[in-house]
Amino acid sequence: MSGPAPHEPDIDPVTGYGTTGHEWNGIRELNTPFPRIVVAALVLTFAYSVVTWVLLPAWPVGRDYTRGLLGLDQQVVATERYRRLTEERADWTRPFASGDFPALAADSELMAHAMPAAARLFADNCAACHGSDGTGGPGFPSLADGTWLWDGAPEAIAETLRVGINSPHPDTRFGQMPAFGRDGMLQREDIAAVTDHVLALSSGQADPASAGAAIFADNCASCHGDDGAGGLGIGAPSLADDHWIYGGSRDAILTTLRDGRQGVMPSWEGRLDDAEINMLALYVAALSAAASTGGGQ
C-alpha cells in the first residue's frame, strides 16, 4: 500500500525560487540560498584573521602580548623613525647647542632654516599658554612686546626656558606678588589708593604727591621701580604701560594687591634639548624685536 503523495513545493513564479510556505497578508517568504559572495567574504575574512594572528602582534598574554612571526612592534618602529629624523636634523641643529647667540643670529641662512622649526616648537610647547602669536592672555605674559619680567636677551630667555619660573627646578627663577591685603600688610583704604596710583601710572597721569604714590614708594617701588616701569630682572612687570598679565581694570588690580599673584613657568630642561631651547629663545626674541619695530601684533 503506497503512502501519501509528497507535498509539491510552492514555486514563486517571478523568481523561480521555492517558498517556505509562510505567508503574511499575501506576502510569501522565499526560501533563497545564502549569497555566495557573502560566504566567500566570510571565508576570506576568517583566513585573513588567522594569517594576521600568526604574523602580527595580536593577543594579550598577561602583561605582554604575542609578537607574531614578523616581530613587528609599533613602538620600535616609531622610535627608529624618530632616531632617523633626529640624525637628519643634527647637521643644522648642532650649532644651536653651543649657545653662541650673536653668531647664530648673524647666520641668516641657518636662521632661515631653523625658524620654521622653532615656530613648530613654539606651537607645540608654548602657544597653549602664550597664544599662537605670543601675545599672551589672562595669567600669561605677552612675549611679543618689549617688556620682560626678566631680561629679554636670547641668553636670558634660554635660561628662563631651561629652569622655569616658580618651578620644581633647583635653579628656577622666583617671582611673587605679595598679598598685601590678605596678609594684613596694607589696609583696605591704602590698597584702594595704590590701585588708583597704578591706574594713573599706566595712563601716564600719576600724581607724585598723592597718597597712593607715597604708599607705592614704600611698598612697591623696590620691585617695580620708582616710576613703575619694572624691568629690574626680578620678575616684576611694568605697571607703566597698557600690558597686563592679570588684567588692568580697577577690580583686577585690587584683587592682585589684596590676594597676591604667583604664576608658574615650567622648566623645559629634560623635555627639550639645548639646541631646541636655544632655537626657541631666538624665536621668542624675534617676536619681541618684530613688535618693537612695528612688525608684530
UniProtKB/TrEMBL annotation:
<comment type="subunit">
    <text>Component of the cbb3-type cytochrome c oxidase at least composed of FixN, FixO, FixQ and FixP.</text>
</comment>
<dbReference type="Pfam" id="PF14715">
    <property type="entry name" value="FixP_N"/>
</dbReference>
<dbReference type="InterPro" id="IPR004678">
    <property type="entry name" value="Cyt_c_oxidase_cbb3_su3"/>
</dbReference>
<dbReference type="GO" id="GO:0005506">
    <property type="term" value="F:iron ion binding"/>
</dbReference>
<dbReference type="Pfam" id="PF13442">
    <property type="entry name" value="Cytochrome_CBB3"/>
</dbReference>
<keyword id="KW-0997">Cell inner membrane</keyword>
<keyword id="KW-0479">Metal-binding</keyword>
<feature type="binding site" description="covalent">
    <location>
        <position position="220"/>
    </location>
    <ligand>
        <name>heme c 2</name>
    </ligand>
</feature>
<dbReference type="GO" id="GO:0020037">
    <property type="term" value="F:heme binding"/>
</dbReference>
<dbReference type="GO" id="GO:0005886">
    <property type="term" value="C:plasma membrane"/>
</dbReference>
<feature type="transmembrane region" description="Helical">
    <location>
        <begin position="37"/>
        <end position="59"/>
    </location>
</feature>
<keyword id="KW-1133">Transmembrane helix</keyword>
<feature type="binding site" description="axial binding residue">
    <location>
        <position position="224"/>
    </location>
    <ligand>
        <name>heme c 2</name>
    </ligand>
</feature>
<keyword id="KW-0812">Transmembrane</keyword>
<dbReference type="InterPro" id="IPR032858">
    <property type="entry name" value="CcoP_N"/>
</dbReference>
<keyword id="KW-0408">Iron</keyword>
<dbReference type="InterPro" id="IPR036909">
    <property type="entry name" value="Cyt_c-like_dom_sf"/>
</dbReference>
<keyword id="KW-0249">Electron transport</keyword>
<feature type="binding site" description="axial binding residue">
    <location>
        <position position="265"/>
    </location>
    <ligand>
        <name>heme c 1</name>
    </ligand>
</feature>
<protein>
    <recommendedName>
        <fullName>Cbb3-type cytochrome c oxidase subunit</fullName>
    </recommendedName>
</protein>
<dbReference type="InterPro" id="IPR008168">
    <property type="entry name" value="Cyt_C_IC"/>
</dbReference>
<feature type="binding site" description="covalent">
    <location>
        <position position="223"/>
    </location>
    <ligand>
        <name>heme c 2</name>
    </ligand>
</feature>
<keyword id="KW-0472">Membrane</keyword>
<keyword id="KW-0375">Hydrogen ion transport</keyword>
<keyword id="KW-0677">Repeat</keyword>
<dbReference type="InterPro" id="IPR050597">
    <property type="entry name" value="Cytochrome_c_Oxidase_Subunit"/>
</dbReference>
<keyword id="KW-0813">Transport</keyword>
<dbReference type="GO" id="GO:0016491">
    <property type="term" value="F:oxidoreductase activity"/>
</dbReference>
<dbReference type="InterPro" id="IPR009056">
    <property type="entry name" value="Cyt_c-like_dom"/>
</dbReference>
<feature type="binding site" description="covalent">
    <location>
        <position position="129"/>
    </location>
    <ligand>
        <name>heme c 1</name>
    </ligand>
</feature>
<feature type="domain" description="Cytochrome c">
    <location>
        <begin position="207"/>
        <end position="288"/>
    </location>
</feature>
<feature type="binding site" description="covalent">
    <location>
        <position position="126"/>
    </location>
    <ligand>
        <name>heme c 1</name>
    </ligand>
</feature>
<comment type="similarity">
    <text>Belongs to the CcoP / FixP family.</text>
</comment>
<dbReference type="Pfam" id="PF00034">
    <property type="entry name" value="Cytochrom_C"/>
</dbReference>
<feature type="binding site" description="axial binding residue">
    <location>
        <position position="130"/>
    </location>
    <ligand>
        <name>heme c 1</name>
    </ligand>
</feature>
<feature type="binding site" description="axial binding residue">
    <location>
        <position position="177"/>
    </location>
    <ligand>
        <name>heme c 2</name>
    </ligand>
</feature>
<keyword id="KW-0560">Oxidoreductase</keyword>
<comment type="pathway">
    <text>Energy metabolism; oxidative phosphorylation.</text>
</comment>
<feature type="domain" description="Cytochrome c">
    <location>
        <begin position="113"/>
        <end position="202"/>
    </location>
</feature>
<keyword id="KW-0349">Heme</keyword>
<dbReference type="GO" id="GO:0009055">
    <property type="term" value="F:electron transfer activity"/>
</dbReference>
<comment type="function">
    <text>C-type cytochrome. Part of the cbb3-type cytochrome c oxidase complex. FixP subunit is required for transferring electrons from donor cytochrome c via its heme groups to FixO subunit. From there, electrons are shuttled to the catalytic binuclear center of FixN subunit where oxygen reduction takes place. The complex also functions as a proton pump.</text>
</comment>
